[in-house]
Design brief:
The chain has 203 residues and is α/β, with parallel strands linked by helices. It has one domain: Maf protein, CATH 3.90.950.10. Helices cover 32% and strands 24% of the residues. α1 packs across α5 and α4 packs across α5. It is globular.
Length: 203
């Protein structure tokens, strides 16, 4: 079967790596944002992770003429009433590095201990055709806790301070294969993979 061309609608290299890893066995030819000079990121003003994933998928599909897969995800901390949530990638304002956002989060939790440091990662993955038609939206969730200090050098974002329930390592300490098995994005991508696999069988 000829490889089907699909754009991974994110500029986050860590996400690109995870997406390619989970979908690597499908007959897909991946394109990335950097393949298209002048492409414009959309305004992510949706009121849910799914809405933002759809916004990105539709925008990039329309701009490139390719089927596009895009995700939106966030970290929700119990004691912060669900923050940073939808603004996880912009927590503290635009222009901060992953390390700066992580340190800001830890500073907000200085006086918080035990179960009050519980949190969860949420992810939605959408696929859109160039026409704008959304053909699938998949969801994933991973519960866990926020550590007192960063640990590990893998992953990205808040990975160094998130320990998933039932494990002792942060996402940043885990091999990517293990992380993809249990993470919010891994679960959403597994469901996406099942959809795509069925699509190619039925095509």
């Amino acid at each position: 079967m000829t490889n089907f061309e699909i754009l991974i609608g994110t500029g986050n290299r860590g996400k690109v790596t995870e997406i390619k890893r989970v979908l690597k066995d499908l007959p897909l030819k991946f394109h990335v944002i950097s393949d298209f000079p002048g492409i414009h990121p959309p305004v992510e003003d949706g009121f849910s992770y799914a809405a933002n994933a759809i916004i990105k998928a539709q925008s990039y599909a329309g701009q490139t003429g390719l089927w596009t897969l895009a995700d939106d995800s966030g970290l929700e901390v119990t004691s912060l009433s669900g923050l940073p949530g939808l603004r996880s990638a912009r927590f503290g304002g635009e222009g901060l590095s992953d390390a700066e956002r992580t340190n800001l989060l830890l500073s907000e939790l200085l006086a918080v201990d035990g179960d009050e440091r519980s949190a969860r990662f949420i992810c939605a993955v959408a696929i859109a055709k160039p026409t704008g038609e959304v053909i699938n939206v998949a969801h994933g969730m991973c519960p866990g806790n926020i550590t007192k200090a960063p640990s590990g050098h893998e992953g990205f974002g808040y990975d160094p301070v998130f320990i998933p329930t039932g494990h002792k390592m942060t996402f940043a300490e885990m091999p990517l294969l293990l992380k993809n098995t249990i993470s919010h994005r891994g679960k959403a991508l597994d469901a996406t993979r099942e959809f795509l696999a069925g699509f190619f069988v039925d095509a």
